[in-house]
Design brief:
Blueprint lengths: L15 E8 L7 E8 L2 H12 L7 E6 L11 H4 L16 H11 L3 H9 L2
Antiparallel strand pairs: 1-2, 1-3
């Protein structure tokens, strides 16, 4: 795997793009709240606190240089493709269960039809 950056590039001034993640309480996961430009890690942390924690409380703050992310996008389809068919784990089949059951019942024989079928030689 190689490091790839987003199409956006940092300005020539030596500033880096940082991604900011906030965890609002211990039961929730960190949420991406935005990006910022900063000359170094310390300034990035201060700017993140000032910009993203001004109104909301948090228990954790992550500030990560965008260049630290290892990215695979849709351009590398072979890597993102599933190795095995695991469609049985997907929820999409449940949505149409009612329609399938209704169609099955419509095709099923009624009690009268069964009795009539048994009586006919």
């Amino acid at each position: 795997m190689s490091h790839t950056s987003h199409n956006e590039s940092a300005p020539v001034t030596g500033e880096q793009i940082y991604e900011v993640f906030v965890q609002s309480n211990h039961q929730e996961a960190h949420q991406h709240v935005g990006s910022l430009l900063a000359p170094d890690d310390t300034m990035a942390m201060l700017l993140a606190r000032e910009n993203f924690l001004r109104r909301d409380k948090a228990v954790s703050l992550w500030v990560v240089p965008r260049s630290a992310f290892i990215v695979k996008d849709s351009g590398d389809g072979a890597f993102l493709k599933r190795e095995f068919d695991r469609s049985y784990r997907e929820v999409r089949g449940y949505a149409d269960n009612a329609a399938r059951w209704k169609a099955f019942k419509a095709k099923a024989l009624t009690l009268e039809e069964v009795i009539e079928d048994v009586r006919t030689p």
